[in-house]
Design a protein that fits this description.
- It is a single chain.
- The longest helix has about 45 residues.
- The protein has two domains: about 200 residues, Spore Coat Polysaccharide Biosynthesis Protein SpsA, Chain A (Alpha-Beta Complex); about 90 residues, no CATH class.
- Helix content is about 50%, strand content about 15%.
- It is α/β, with parallel strands linked by helices.
- It contains 13 helices and ten strands.
Length: about 350
Amino acid sequence: MSVPLVSVIVPNYNYGRSIGLCVEAALTQTYPNIEVVVVDDCSTDDSAAIAAAAGARVVSTGVNSGVAVARNLGAELSSGEILVFLDSDVAMHPDAVAKSVELLDSGQGYGAICGTYEPEPLIRDSLIEEYRSLQQYYLLLKSEGVIDTVHTAILAIPRRVFDEVGPFNPILRHTEDQDYGRRISERYTVLSSLEVRGRHDHDDTVRIVLDKVFARARLAVPLILGRRHLQGGFVTGPRAGASLAAPLTVAALAAPVLWGAAWALLPLALFVLGVWGDLDMYREVRRHRGRLFLGYFVAVNFLVNLTVFAAIGVAGTQWLCSKRFRHLYDPQPRPDAAPVTVGASRG
């Protein structure tokens, strides 16, 4: 009995540091029938050459167009019955594709399978990467099961489902995954599975991490308000309380100056409240890395919570002032993959 061809589609822009590990892991899967297509979005480094040398088929978008266009082009130029979208900074476990196919074929009616991260980064060279790996690992751990979004780091979709739902929206550069999650979950069940795993090479500076957190949190607001329920992650439940406690803690530092020394406990109390909101995550961090690293993790997470709150504040202003922002995720005519000039090479 033949097994369906799986097309592993890897969008890439300047990921020379990790693309070789990504392609190597994709080509050495236990699943026997795989093609790997790297869609290079006009990188300025040598990542396309590295991917080709590692054995991937490499095509180009021709013009830098964003990850959505790269994924769509990869789907168009590939031949697989099942598509696995894989970020170029992720190295899958050897059985990740096999597990994905097994879950899609389980009879549960899944329209997509999302993989998760290991708690350790793919390339260990900075403390902020260690922070981000553990934070993302915890959030994905807690979202195991049926979800109403997608995680595109490892995302397996039958081609028939992709054709029905349509391509990623090429207009969106930061939240195309959240938009796609909304669209696909309206028709199919999406599963986040701990059985499908990989290691992720996270960003290695605090500035880049905070910039990405700000952008994604800000752009998530119109989607969440439009759906009128909370999705999980940074802006829901206890996490929302932790994010709110961070700016309140900073504001409360003025309390003893304004009202006397007796108010000095207020910022401490608010800080403790924020820690309580993320207590389960901090326990997980301590279990993996111990108390010393936990102190660093709490400090960085405080900055992240401040960033999330700032992003929500900016988004709130945009929501009130910009009709375009309010309707950013309104249903549109089926987005076009908008393929551009293609150049192909094979390793």
